[in-house]
Amino acid sequence: MSFQLLCKQDEAHDDSIWSVAWCSNSLDGIEYILTGGADGVVKSWKWLDNKRIVEDNKMMGHNLGVVGITAHDNKVASVGLDCTIRLWNVQEGTEIKCIDGGPADAWSIAFSPDGNKLATGANEGKVRIFDARDPECSELEVLNAQGKFALSLSFSSDNELLAVGGMDGHIKIFSNQNYQLLHTIEGHAMPIRSITFSPDSQFMMSASDDGHIKVYDAKHANLVGTLSGHSGWVLSVCFGPDNHAVSCSSDKTVKIWNVGTRQCINTFTQHTDQVWGAKYSKDGTKVVSAGDDCSIHVYDCV
Predict the structure, then answer these.
(1) Burial class (CB in 10 A: 0-12, 13-18, 19+), 181
(2) For 94, 118, 141, 242, which has the most beta carbons within 10 A of its beta carbon?
């Protein structure tokens, strides 16, 4: 495989970038990068000619930092420290809907793979699930993760499971069909910053402040391996194609892993401060990362 930095956008936000995502919009055929910052701004960037980032829209609405962002086709949602969840039109850069997140901060957000549901996790240990097909985004269910803080969450690729990572280091796995609690895993001794499922939904990974990434059999919730190599908090992990994954850390690095061999196969060191997010593109050939140095990096990973 070949790994190289394709593009770098410095001073992308006025403050730290806390969240990043790809958005492949079927309406215009353009691939977007989405970023949310401590400055309370959501930005969309066009990825053009497989080599450059062009700022497209600056979406204002959050009064405090944007801690999570998610996209499904042309749907984009963000969550902020102002206790609001906001849905956006990525093409026009306009707000579609604002949802009151309740009395507690919401810290994580994800669309289901079919785009029909939107889930958010909060510091009250609750997970709220909304109907993303409804223009009013009506609430479908509230799950009790029974922890101090639902810090991270992810739907499985087959749409069957919803995993929630807590501040207490525990993972709760729910059915995405009847919302029953299926498994509780005492996975880490420190907060779980990120959870991801493999494209075939067979495996799940969790990233923690303990510096480790753990790999589980998603169906039975059994630990099958640990990825170690970061020297700081692991702030994000994302499964990619061909049994590969990307992670990023407070140690300022972005790492590519062979999950099967549990080995790190490449380390990017271009960031100058901690890296909050790293995600694979839809086709799995590129990785985008962003962090406290206010920069966006895009890497070739083919």
Answers:
(1) middle
(2) 118
| Structural tokens at position 85 | 């969840």
Domain 3-301, CATH homologous superfamily name and number: YVTN repeat-like/Quinoprotein amine dehydrogenase (2.130.10.10)
> Across-strand partners of 278?
289
Query: Which residues make beta-bridge pairs with 280?
Result: 287
CA-nearest of 96, 71, 72 to 84 is 96
* Three state DSSP letters for 9-77: ECCCCCCCEEEEEEEECCCCCCEEEEEEECCCCEEEEEEECCCEEEEEEEECCCCCCEEEEEEECCEEE
261 Cβ contact list (under 8 Å, min separation 6):
none
pLDDT tens string 162-210: 999 999 999 999 999 999 999 999 989 999 999 999 999 999 999 999 9
Q: CA 33 to CA 31: how far, in whole Å?
A: 7
pLDDT of residue 52: 94
The strand pairing partners of 48, in sequence order, are 52
What are the domain boundaries of the chain? Answer: 3-301
Q: Residue 225 is encoded by which pair of tokens?
A: 């391996």
Task: With beta carbons less than 8 A apart as the criterion, state whether 75 and 111 touch.
Answer: yes
Instruction: Tell me the pLDDT tens digit for each residue of 19-62.
Output: 999 998 767 788 999 999 999 999 999 999 988 999 999 999 99
